[in-house]
Amino acid sequence: MKKIIYLLTTILLTFFSNNSLIASEKKDQYSCKPKHAAAIRSNGIQTFKIKGDEKPVLLSIYKGFLETNDMKYKLYEAGGRAFAFSPERAWVHFQDITVLDNGQLSFVMAVNSSISRYLCDKK
User: Does the first or last residue of the chain, that is N or C, have fewer Cβ atoms within 10 Å of its Cβ?
Assistant: First the structure.
């Protein structure tokens, strides 16, 4: 019984200590560039060539919100990954928000019928 309690306590502590992306008290700022992009068109799925010279998207994560230059999106957690959504802009959402092993923030941004994977460096 003690082993089960110890195991559950360890799992809960690990979960809550690693869930700092959503509950961050300091304002983490990131510079993000697209890695992959695609859209559904009338003639099928179109993929876009990423050249590397695209203008970065600046965003911050603070007190449970993902903030871009023009909007705040509430962060939610599901299954170890985070996603962000705002009812005021329902056609835009961020999914699969996670920090990679190399420290980069990664997310997928979906806007209408297009989807883009972004990689972000902390500023």
Answer: N
3-state class percentages of the chain: helix first, strand second, coil last, to nearest 5: 20, 50, 30
DSSP state of 52: S
- C-alpha closest to that of 117 among 64, 45, 48: 48
Q: Which residues of 35-67 are buried (b: 16+ CB within 10 A; e: fewer)?
A: eebeeeeeeeeeeeeeeeeeeebebbbeebbbb
On whether the CB atoms of residues 46 and 38 are closer than 8 A, the answer is yes
Has residue 16 been placed in a domain? Answer: no
**Closest by Cα among 71, 123, 55, 59 to 97:** 59
Task: Flag whether 7 is in a domain.
Answer: no
Q: Where residue 61 sits, what CATH number does that domain have?
A: 2.40.128
pLDDT digits (tens, 9 = 90+) for 28-64: 899 999 999 999 999 999 999 999 899 999 999 999 9
